Amino acid sequence: MLAEGADLTVRDNRVYLKTIEGLRPVDVIIRRVDAGSCDPLELRSDSPFGVAGLVEAVRAGKVTVVNSLGSGLADTESFMPFLPGLCQGLLQEELQLPSLATWWCGQAEARDYVLRNLDFLETRDVFHRGASEPGSQNPDGPEAWQLGGPRELIAERGFAYLAREPMKLATVPVLGQDGLQPVPYALRVFVAFDANDYVVMPGGLARLCPPHPGQPFDFGRFGDGKDTWVLSGSATRPAPHRRTRGGAVKLRRTGRELPSRSADNLFWLGRYAERAEGIMREIRSSLLRLVDAERPDEDLLAIGQVLRPTLSRAGIEPPDEAELLADPRRHLERQLGELVFDNDRPYGLRRTLRELGRTATLARDRLSADSWRILRWLQPEEFARRPEPVGPPRAQRISGLLGQLDLGIQRLAAFSGMGMENMTRSFGWSFLDMGRRIERSLQTVELLGSLPLPGDPEDDGRLILLLDIADSFMTYRSRYLLTPQLAPVLDLLLFDETNPRSVAFQLAALVGHLGRLPHDAAEPEDRSEYRVAAGMLESLRKADATDLCRRGAGGDRPALEALLERILADLPDVTVDITRHYFSHAEGIASFPSAFTSPR
Question: pLDDT, tens digit, for every residue of 525-536?
Answer without folding.
Answer: 568 889 999 999
